[in-house]
Amino acid sequence: MQTSTLGAVMDGLMRRYSERVPDVQKVINAMIDGDVIASAGEIENDHIAFRTMGVPNLGLASFEKIFLHYGYEKRDEYNFIEKKLTAFWYSPPEPHFPRIFASELRVNELSDEAQRIILRYTDTVASDPVDSLDLDDAEAVDRFLHQPLWTTPTLADYQALLKESEYAAWVIYNRYYLNHFTISVHNLKAGYNTIDEFVAFLENQGLRLNSAGGTIKISPDGDLRQASTVAQMLDAEFAGGDLFRIAGSYVEFAERRILPQFRDVPTDQITREHRREGFETGNADKIFESTFTTQTGR
Ligand code: OOG
Ligand code: NI
């Protein structure tokens, strides 16, 4: 297990993501200008997220091999019945690396028409591409994560998918681009270290937040609180040169509260182990909608 390779892969993901999502720099600059942090390096990345197509040779079974190779451990499963998604989270080999939340579309549950559209693209992948990848070569992995896995879709196919599964449309165009990174708010300075305070700060800066199910998503135990921006829109070029504005990636914010049994531990001794771990289906279900037209078109 090579954490230096993992570090380089993460740097590549974050670099391309920041270029694609102007809100990343906007939030960081606002935090620096507001004296919340002195530099971007102080930000703790709670987790990053990826989306995949659940078809042969792709999906989580293929994708997860990359991060399992770097020492990530597969943890809990989450099921999104209406959205037809399965997700897992993966804990990092060292605590300074982000958790990973990766999901997969259960393509076989879609209509025949949507399945046909998706398979027209993904069937060109005849063997698991991760098997022929040198995972110890960070540049090769970076290239893989940002390369076209299939041909550029037509606008008609994209729009047909959009009607049935916004997630499917997102993946057919955006593939393995980083879906979001997540700023941990609980370790920020007082006044910004709760999600309510941080959301107020973001709203003051004019950032547009996902309102699905309420701006702040709260787990039933009350200890995982999340919010996210509405996805950045991109001018996408489709097959044949058609242009259309589509949803790209977004930014998330998370507060992990100290677990009840550790609430007496002195603040300066609190580490990741004392806080709420994992994810929450009810929160995630609404966070997915950060890229849906119900949010981006508001
Ligand atoms: C992932 C949405 C869920 C979380 O933290 O629960 C999520 C996605 O939009 O792909 O990020
Ligand atoms: Ni997330």
Automatic annotation (TrEMBL):
One of its GO terms (molecular function) is dioxygenase activity. The keyword Repressor does not apply. Its cofactor is Fe(2+). It comes from the Bacteria. The keyword Iron applies. Its EC number is 1.13.11.93. Signal peptide: none annotated. InterPro entries: HGLS. Transmembrane segments: none annotated. Keywords: Dioxygenase, Iron, Oxidoreductase. It is an enzyme of class 1 (oxidoreductase). Belongs to the 2-oxoadipate dioxygenase/decarboxylase family. This is 2-oxoadipate dioxygenase/decarboxylase.
